Amino acid sequence: MSNCPGKLTWPELVNENGEKAAQVIEKENMNVDAIVLKDGTPVIQDFRCDRVWVWVNDYGVVVRVPSVG
């Protein structure tokens, strides 16, 4: 795993609203920015302790476990 501070994954947010999930993530780990993206959107592949991708479907529902990276 990594040496990133704070909570690192949020499996409990799968199937939840993406915007609300981002708020929960940023509240539970103030070291990260949660970024909501449509599943399949191209993103940079570097690993960062201050970022969480929140992948959502066309309905804005989280479809992957959000995790630091």
What are the main properties of this structure?
69 residues; alpha+beta; three-stranded mixed sheet; globular
Verbal overview:
- With 69 residues, this protein is α+β, with helices and mostly antiparallel strands.
- The chain has one helix spanning 18-28; strands spanning 33-38, 51-56, 67-68.
- A 3-stranded mixed beta sheet has the order 1-2-3, covered by helices on one side.
Give the strand content. 15-25%
The profile of the biggest β sheet is: 3 strands, mixed
Strand order in the sheet with the most strands? 1-2-3
What is the overall pLDDT average? 96
The Cα radius of gyration reads 11 Å
Shape: globular
C-alpha termini separation: 10 Å
Estimated helix fraction: 10-25%
Uncertain runs: none
Order of helices and strands: HEEE
The helix/strand class is: alpha+beta
Count of individual helical segments:
1
Count of strand segments: 3
Quaternary assembly: single chain
